[in-house]
UniProtKB/TrEMBL annotation:
<feature type="signal peptide">
    <location>
        <begin position="1"/>
        <end position="18"/>
    </location>
</feature>
<keyword id="KW-0732">Signal</keyword>
<dbReference type="Pfam" id="PF00497">
    <property type="entry name" value="SBP_bac_3"/>
</dbReference>
<keyword id="KW-0449">Lipoprotein</keyword>
<protein>
    <submittedName>
        <fullName>Amino acid ABC transporter substrate-binding protein</fullName>
    </submittedName>
</protein>
<dbReference type="InterPro" id="IPR001638">
    <property type="entry name" value="Solute-binding_3/MltF_N"/>
</dbReference>
<feature type="domain" description="Solute-binding protein family 3/N-terminal">
    <location>
        <begin position="42"/>
        <end position="268"/>
    </location>
</feature>
<keyword id="KW-0564">Palmitate</keyword>
Length: 275
């Protein structure tokens, strides 16, 4: 896949905060667990394969990224379980969990009412993604969300960012025009050509788009919101969810989550986790 294509695929995912890959693989990979005993219960992790920095294949063909490396660390602390990774298209993850073909979804998943009704989220978030105002690199007028008075902003329909932003504009009586754009290519092009003045993204996504597709983006202002990211389980798998939570809390306390967040996401977002 060409780099620009990967970047735009990632954009479509990130803007909805529950992100997915665009290709399916039958590949499975066993985590480097200390629990190789036949008595260990196998846990199938459903994940993606081209979500850059989160779950993807590197140049050597290894499945890696923040979610993958964190789960390997969790597996090392849970002797009673043995994790096995299966990559698939994002559209198949929820169906695979519901049909019990997999036991956990790891793909930068945020809560929403529909998902919470059908599935179980672990209590301890493992990531807290910050959403910022993002402008063209040549824009010097907009330094924060309050500078968007009288401006046009691009929003993705139903995204967490769009709900937050529209509420903010209404509460602050701001005369800001919202332009809803479903095409990621159009979304980025409108900002680059000045048809809209700002969009809303995660900083690590901005870095990827600038590097891979010359998007000419710039982050401004303080974070508008943090979206807690969790693993997803079937409703009856409370025991497994609790075990993952216990390991996660250890990894947060000993600095492993901080180290992985800094490596893969460019900053330590563990300080924002609600424990």
């Amino acid at each position: 896949m060409k780099k620009a294509g990967i970047a735009l695929t990632l954009a479509a995912s990130l803007l909805l905060t529950a992100c997915g890959s665009t290709k399916e693989s039958a590949t499975s990979e066993t985590a480097g667990s200390s629990s190789s005993s036949a008595e260990a219960e196998k846990v199938i992790i459903g994940t993606g394969s081209d979500f850059i920095n989160i779950c993807f294949y590197d140049e050597d063909g290894n499945l890696t990224g923040y979610d993958i490396e964190l789960l390997k660390e969790i597996d090392n602390r849970l002797e009673e379980y043995e994790f096995d990774f299966q990559t698939m298209d994002f559209s198949n993850l929820l169906l695979s969990l519901e049909s019990k073909k997999i036991d956990i979804i790891a793909h930068n998943m945020a809560k929403n009412p529909e998902r919470e009704e059908k599935f179980l989220f672990n209590k301890q978030p493992y990531n807290a993604m910050p959403t910022h105002v993002v402008v063209h690199e040549g824009n010097t007028e907009v330094q924060s969300i309050d500078d968007l008075e009288g401006k046009k902003v691009g929003l993705q329909p139903t995204s967490n960012a769009s709900l937050f932003v529209e509420k903010y504009f209404k509460e602050h009586n701001m005369n800001t025009e919202s332009v809803y754009v479903s095409s990621t290519q159009d979304y980025l092009n409108q900002l680059k050509t000045g048809r809209i003045d700002a969009i809303f993204l995660f900083p690590f996504a901005v870095d990827i788009f600038n590097r891979e597709s010359d998007a000419e983006l710039k982050v401004v202002g303080e974070p508008l919101m943090f979206t807690d990211i969790h693993f997803m389980f079937n409703k009856e798998d409370q025991k497994l969810s609790d075990a993952v939570d216990g390991a996660l809390e250890e990894l947060i306390e000993d600095g492993t989550v901080k180290e992985l967040s800094t490596k893969w996401l460019g900053a330590d977002y563990s300080v924002e986790l609600n424990k």
